[in-house]
Write a structure and sequence with these properties.
Layout lengths: L34 H15 L6 H8 L3 H7 L3 H19 L3 H4 L3 H18 L1 H9 L5 H26 L9 H13 L1 H4 L23 H16 L4
Length: about 230
């Protein structure tokens, strides 16, 4: 996870707000797209095809507008990527400035940040999914990876402070603990869907259709599971 505050990411639609046809040109031919609706479509296509596997032609077809109309809003495909991952990054870093993240005992702060990180992931699911899939092939991807590392480092600092206070167990190395925690959190993008349909494979997959709870429910579960094992005993 990671984020750059003040990066200028637009207030795009949250996960599930816009369908595949949202924002298409009207019958009269006028372009009704805004930068926000275009970004929503681009994120969906990037997640479906992969960023490297997506061309401006793919985006044009998905949006139902011409490539020249896309260039009216953005200068390149990479600009769309930057806007998208900035939205996820800004949401994550904003958590670190919230009152619950900066006041109270280290354990309380670590639990708060963990819970809010999951809630941001659920609320901004397509954008965080894209952030977690960048591979460092472009300047924007390398920047996003660096910001993710910075976020992880700051969260690890909260865990280290809780260990020093004797609130979390000290026999598990802090970097390992935070990496395991983020592994659990990041896996949520693979199966959680706001519409309640869990994603899975064939046959005996444990992921089946049915209600799975809200983002807040998942956040509470992550906190309970993670900190029941990490909390200092005695």
């Amino acid at each position: 996870m990671t984020a750059q505050q003040g990066s200028g990411s637009p207030g795009t639609a949250t996960a599930g707000q816009r369908g595949r046809g949202a924002g298409r040109a009207t019958r009269g031919g006028r372009d009704t797209y805004t930068p926000q609706t275009l970004l929503s479509v681009a994120v969906r296509v990037f997640n479906e095809r992969g960023y490297d596997g997506t061309s401006m032609e793919h985006l044009s077809q998905a949006a139902g507008i011409s490539k020249s109309s896309i260039y009216h809003h953005v200068s390149s495909k990479e600009e769309l990527l930057r806007l998208a991952v900035s939205r996820a990054i800004d949401g994550l870093f904003a958590v670190l400035d919230e009152e619950g993240a900066v006041t109270g005992r280290p354990l309380e702060r670590a639990q708060y940040v963990t819970r809010r990180t999951v809630e941001v992931l659920a609320a901004e699911l397509p954008y965080v999914t894209l952030l977690l899939r960048v591979r460092g092939n472009t300047d924007t991807e390398r920047w996003a990876l660096e910001r993710r590392r910075e976020f992880d480092h700051r969260v690890a600092g909260l865990f280290a402070a809780a260990v020093q206070e004797g609130e979390l167990r000290g026999d598990v190395e802090v970097r390992m603990a935070t990496r395991l925690l983020f592994g659990m959190i990041n896996s949520v993008v693979e199966w959680y869907r706001p519409d309640g349909v869990r994603q899975g494979g064939d046959g005996g997959s444990p992921y089946e259709e049915g209600p799975v709870g809200s983002g807040a429910d998942i956040a509470d579960a992550v906190v309970r599971i993670a900190f029941s094992g990490l909390r200092a005993q005695g």
